[in-house]
Each structure stands twice: as structure tokens, then as C-alpha cells.
Amino acid sequence: MKSFTYYQPTEIRYGVGRLNELGEIALKYGKKCLLVTTPTGPAREPMYDRVKSILKDSGLEVAHFDQVQQNPTTENIAAGAELAIHHNADVIVGFGGGSSMDSAKAIAVEATHEGSCWDYLYYKKQPTDKTLPVIAISTTSGTGSQVTQVAVVTNTKERDKSALYNSIIYPRVCIIDPELMVTVPQHITASTGFDAFCHAFESMLHPNSSVYLDCLALDAIKLVAENLPVVLDDLTDLDARAHLAVADTFAGLCIANAGVTLPHGVGMAISGMYPHVIHGESLAIIYPAFTRFTYKHAVKQFAAVARIFDPSINGLSDEKAAEKSCQIIDDFIERVDMRITLKDAKMPEKEIPALAEQSMVLPDYKGNPRVATENEMLELIKQAYYGLN
Hints:
By secondary structure, the chain is α/β, with parallel strands linked by helices. The protein has helices spanning 22-26, 45-57, 74-87, 98-110, 186-205, 211-233, 238-257, 262-273, 279-294, 299-309, 318-335, 352-358, 374-386; strands at 11-14, 32-36, 61-65, 91-96, 134-138, 150-155, 160-165, 173-176. The protein has 13 helices and eight strands.
């Protein structure tokens, strides 16, 4: 058994009703709070008002930045950082899905450092302890951002999606309250739920995996397999929502300590070039090609996942189970209505080579059990565009 290190500084507060603890948590970090969310609208306004009331009733001064967009941009972060500076914020609260929580982390950096958040990507200079503390409150079950040291940002001018990656941006506290998730729409529920599966599975495939992370990952996959279809049949099923929230958190803990592989690198490239494609969709686009490209090089892991989704194959050898995993995962993608190709996503066919090249910018593909060459990546993107034969 190989050695491993596990690190998680975020205090996790999980359970129905835990949102009510936000005020006393935020007060530990100061008196002035910046709340970071997606735009206010009729469906979201009551929830945002509730959060602001909890904070204000605890004695905090609250400014609300509600301009986070899907695949948040450097422009979003700059506007949020400007408000944080003007408000003299002591603490940033990211409330929402991955876009809001990632934006909160990036704002916490840009508001306290020279330049743009883009200057502090994982391969550039690193943020310091001047970074404002972040409290993350997840309202979806898939991104895992509430327990990771990652903030994903899109540079629209460069058509590039990349990430800040540093332990200083781990949220100090996260609140995971399943009550907040029962209003998440069908497609977002499916997309984030599939993302949670991908996080868990890819962490098992990563060279930094460990026996500890494998336990979390397998539990997360089982919870997604059992509960995502249930939730999609009844979006108000609080018990199934609660189980998905646990799966998301477990999967987030996995990627924080291991990492992701080829699908996430490709997925980041897709959303960077085509921001209308949400993260879970980008993963569903590449997964059928990825599984067939990879399964022979990670037989044990693919077999384990296949048996979770289809216990009837328990009697098969690992090799046979791994082979069947490709179709089994395809069937799950179909079951949660996430089947999509790059052509469906309105990507210009002429940009296939450009996307293949961009898919090899982030190092995620290097952590895959089978590392793609440039020609192999081009073939994978072609399969993701046209679909499998």
C-alpha cells in the first residue's frame, strides 16, 4: 500500500437548517461581509434576502455582488473585487453553485493583491496570506468547490478557462444545507450530479489517489448512482438531495487531495472556448470517448464503477467488467438526460483542431492512466464532436 497525505482545512457544517449558523460563523472574521451570488431574480430573491437577513441580524454590514455568471469571467471577478475594496470587506461569502463559490475565492485574492486574479493562476505567482477569508455555501450538488483550493475563471479575450490553485483559498468554513438544493432546476441538478460522479471517478484514476480517497470516491459514486435518478424524478425529494450533497462533498475532498484527469482538462477547454456550455455538459460530451480510450489502462477502477451501477455483473472478471463499464456509463449519461456532442453544442466543426490543442494546455490529461498524444487527443475531440460510431 503506497503512502499518502491528506489535507483538508475547511470546517464542514453539513445538515438541514445549518444555514442559520452563517451569522455567527461570519462574525469570527470581521464586521463587513461581501455576499457573492449569481444575479438576483424572482426565484432567487427570497433565498438571497434570507442570507442577507441572517448576516445583518448578527451585526454584519453586508454588500451584495450579484453579477456572477455561468463560467465566471475575469471581468466578473474584477467587478466583485472592486466592490469588496469599496466596502472594506473582512470576509467573502460565496453562496450558490460552483460559479459563485469559485468567484468568491478569486475575489478574495484580487481584492487584496496587485493586478488581476488571472495573474495568480496555478502556474503564475501565488496569492499570499493577505487573501480574505472565504465562507462557502453550496446550493447545488456537484462542483465540490466548498471543500477545494481551486477557483476556476474564464478569460473571454483569450478564450481560455483556467484556475487559481492554492491552499490559501480553501474556504475557512463551508455550509452544506440540503434544504437549499430542492429548488435547483432539472438540468442543473443532472449536470452537477454528473460532475460529482466525474470528480470521484477521476480521483481514483489519478496518480495521487490513495486508499483513503478511494473509500470516499466509491461511496460518492454509489450515492450518485442511487440518488441522482431519484432526484431527477422528484426534485423536491429532500432525502435524496441530502445524499447527493454528501456525494458532492466526498468527491470534492477527493479532487482536493488527488486531482482530475483527461475529461476535466478537455471540459475546461470546451467551456473556455464556448462559455455557453456548462461544466457538466462539457464532461458528458467527452466521457464516451474517454472511457473507451482509458479503460484497459485502469481495469480495476473501471470494473469497480461498473459493478456499482450494475451489480448483475459482479460475477464477471475485472477485465470483462471494465469493458462493460463504457456502455454502463453511457447508459447512465442517457438516464440523467446528459447525452450531448460538441456538434449538439454548436461548436464550429473547423475548430476541432484548435480545441484539441487547447485540451492539452492544462496538465490534467497527463494524470490520466493513458496519456494522450496530440494525434490521439485530436481523435478524441473528433469522437466528441461527431459521436461514437
